[in-house]
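Two entries, shown back to back:
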Amino acid sequence: RRSVDIKTQLRKNVEKIGEMIASEAKVKKSQDDLHSAEQALDKSLKDIRFSTEDTREDFSNTKDAYLVLGNMLSETTDLIENLFTEITAVQSIASQINLYSVNASLDIARGGIFPQSNRGALEDIKDLAAKKKKKTDEISILVIRCKNSTKLALDQASFCEERQEEAAESFGTTKEKLS
């Protein structure tokens, strides 16, 4: 009987050892799973950090692009103001030329001839006409500069839009990774 009890006890001990070995294997698997999860978490955190840095850089690039656009628009505004100044000068010259022309026409109509005293007025008209041509040429240059500046500003606005889209996409990626 005692040998039966010892055998039974030995079987139970063997079963317990088997359970312990199985339990140890489960613990080892759990440790391996935990290690894999830690590695995956580390990778995810690195991805999020890089994604966050990309998003920050994209937003910074967008901000810089908009600052450049603001400067371009300011330059275009200055060019337009100069253009209006030059146009006003041409209008003033044209008014003076018209006034001299009207006076000369009246003198001719009254006297039938162009009086000698108005010869100086002819020189003034020539000078004013030369100034008008010069101002008209300056206006043409300003118009070309305005056109080019406006085109550059529009190109920059498109660039800003692209940077903004990249930043939004980058932000969306970061948001997904955090979810």
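entry 2 starts here
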Amino acid sequence: PEPSRLSRLGPEAKIEGWSLRPPNGWENRVKADATESRYTWGKAGLGALVVVRPAARPVESTLEDAMESATGALKARMKGLQLSRPERGRIEGRPFVRVRYRMEPQPQLPGMEYGFIYATIEAGTPVVLTGVGSAASIEDMEAAAQTYRSRGDAARPVAAAGADEPGKPLADERRQIPA
């Protein structure tokens, strides 16, 4: 993320072999059960950033499978959803696929109309980072998602950048989603 966005993030939160820098001043809560753990950072009126890590059980899954599952769940819950085209890239050398979205106002999420989903595969297990928020907060949440690091990422090489190649870093700019 750009330095101006990094300055709006809090200190690194290290959790079970992975970390990220959540937006400054956002509260954290964890919900874990037998199938997955959800790590949520949020602030009233601004939105929520969620990291979903399924229980360690490697499956034959691709980035596209992980994204299809995440967007399918979103489509089932939200009205007036407009999804961007999936983009492939890397964060800290790890391959990710990203989709941004806009939705019509939802009664359960007042003021929240923008969102994103990042999906990756770790040891055969899909990991999803998702954020939903207001126009004022979504960029900070996306900057936080782009600080995600997992054990071993520092040693992973980053391939040369190129148009829609696996080594291409995910762009930091907001893309317009048709209204």
